[in-house]
Design a protein that fits this description.
Elements (H helix, E strand, L loop, with lengths): L3 E3 L6 E2 L12 E3 L6 E2 L12 E3 L6 E2 L12 E3 L6 E2 L12 E3 L6 E2 L4
Parallel strand pairs: 1-3, 2-4, 3-5, 4-6, 6-8, 7-9, 8-10
Length: about 110
């Protein structure tokens, strides 16, 4: 039962469905090497409370955090350029998202 995950600094992309449905996961720390979170990477991680984003992250693709019902607040990094559709769909307890000052592409994130 994985509760906390620190991604190694050798990783640059979080692949599609890589941690899909990891229901015990509560916290993720992404190193500065991570520039892309692919589709549905952390979907249905229903216990996920805290995400520490990489300061080099540029893209979060569709449904990456869909169904993460324990998320309450997200602070997106200043480096983020694109947030795709339905990234936070079904995150019913998410009350606050802090966006970077400039973002080039903003999908329908709910």
């Amino acid at each position: 039962s994985l509760k906390k995950l620190e991604i190694p600094s050798t990783i640059t992309v979080i692949e599609c469905f890589s941690l899909f449905g990891c229901i015990s996961l509560e916290e993720i720390t992404l190193p500065s090497s991570v520039i892309l979170i692919e589709r549905y990477s952390f979907s249905n991680c229903s216990s996920l409370i805290n995400v520490n984003f990489s300061d080099k992250l540029t893209v979060i693709n569709e449904g990456a955090f869909k169904g993460c019902i324990s998320l309450k607040e997200i602070v997106l990094p200043a480096s983020l350029e694109k947030i795709d559709n339905r990234v936070f769909e079904g995150c019913t307890n998410l009350k606050k998202i802090t966006f970077p000052d400039e973002i080039k592409i903003l999908g329908e994130y709910f």
